[in-house]
Each structure stands twice: as C-alpha cells, then as structure tokens.
Amino acid sequence: MWGPEGLDEAEAGLLGPPEDLRGKDVLEVGAGAAQCARWLARQGAWPVALDLSHRQLQHALRIGGSFPLVCADAAALPFRDGSFDLACSAYGALPFVADPRLVLREVRRVLRPGGRLVFSVTHPIRWAFPDEPGPEGLSVSASYFDRTPYVEQDEEGRAVYVEHHRTLGDRVRDVVACGFRLVDLVEPEWPEWNTSEWGGWSPLRGRLIPGTAIFVCERD
C-alpha cells in the first residue's frame, strides 16, 4: 500500500508490471516492518529492507521474510554504486529528514542507470488543515507555505517525533536537483470501499482533499 487511501502496488504498477519485478534488486528505504519488501519478495524480486530504527527491524524479523534487513541511515546508504534496479519508500525516511536531498542523492547513487525510485509522503496540502477526521478538519488553519516542522516532545522536552513539511514545488525541485526525471505524480483519490477513520484520515476528508503524494522518478 502506498498510503492510507489503500492504493495497492499490484493495482497501480508504479514500480512496473508485477511480472517484471522477478529477479530485480529492490531497496526499500525507511522500511519499518518491511511490508513492501515482503510483498516484493512474493513477486520474485530480491528486496533489501533498510530502516534507521533497530526496533522496527526487530518487528520485521519477528514477522519473517527471506530478505536482508539493514539498520542504517538513509542519507548514508551502506551499498556500492549501482547496486539496485529499483527503490521504493512508502512514507519512509523522506518526511523525517530536514534535507531530503541527502537521501535522494544516496538513492540515485545506488540505483543503476535507468533505475526507478517511487516514494510516497503526506500530501503537502494537508499541512494547511487541522489533523482531525471530522468537519472541524476541513477549515484552513495554517499557511501551506509555512515550512515549520511538526515536533512532538516527551516530558523532558526532547523531540521524539519530527516530520518536515515541503510543498509540492519543493519536492519536485528536490527530485530534479538530485539527478532524477519525474515520470509521474500520483494523488490517490479516496476509494468508496475504504471506510476507515483514524487520526486525521477519514472518508470525509479523503474525498475533498488529497492525503498522499506519490512521486515516480527515474535515474537518467
């Protein structure tokens, strides 16, 4: 799944037709519990799941899967140049770094020429609205152009969660500046079958404003 809307890669084919994934070397960046890598392995690909969080990778290990789990920083990938055919990231790494170009340059480095990167992030327009699923979440409460990060702190004032906001224009310029060609920009619509509601996600909001932005990029 590329996001809370429920867009499935088997349906979307953003990495390419599922039958073409067999034998491909694929890097999942910010893998969490490696859900994407697990799906890729079932298609016959050779995925590697990378995440900064050791605890997340422990969870991935408990779930199981016959692919490598790598604990490392997405801005300093421990792989040789040209190691992968494809890279993917579903809400992983890129929203959580202050300078996403560091990650994009590293991913480009480890991709082979013509390699594809597909990544999804929270749609930037959501930053202008309250994080509420009901009608109160449909009024603009902040400037879309305010790039102040969202920060959660513990009782001692230490940051425990940080997410960085960049506009759509920022994301496009990051992609191009790091040597990628933007092939597609997907804004999934909320499907009728998805009745889930949690956090700021709901059918009400999802049918009115986009929640996810998916960037399909290729290394020339």
Report on the architecture of this protein:
- The chain is of the alpha/beta class and 220 residues long.
- It has one domain: Vaccinia Virus protein VP39 (Rossmann fold, 3-Layer(aba) Sandwich).
- Helices cover 21% and strands 26% of the residues.
- It is built from 6 helices and 9 strands.
- The protein has helices at 9-12, 35-42, 54-63, 100-110, 168-177, 203-206; strands at 25-29, 46-51, 69-71, 84-90, 111-122, 150-153, 159-163, 180-186, 212-219.
- The strands form 2 sheets. A 7-stranded mixed sheet has the order 3-2-1-4-5-9-8, sandwiched between helices. A two-stranded antiparallel ribbon has the order 6-7.
- α2 links the parallel β1 and β2 (46-51).
- The longest helix has 11 residues, at 100-110.
- It is globular.
- 36% of the residues are buried.
- Keywords: Methyltransferase, Transferase.
- InterPro entries: Methyltransf_11, SAM-dependent_MTases_sf.
- One of its GO terms (molecular function) is S-adenosylmethionine-dependent methyltransferase activity.
- This is SAM-dependent methyltransferase.
- Residues 27-119 form the Methyltransferase type domain.
Task: List key phrases describing it.
alpha/beta, Rossmann fold, 220 residues, 9 strands, 6 helices, single chain
Summarize the entry for a quick read.
21% of the residues lie in helices and 26% in strands. It has six helices and nine strands; from the N terminus they run αβαβαββαβββαβαβ.
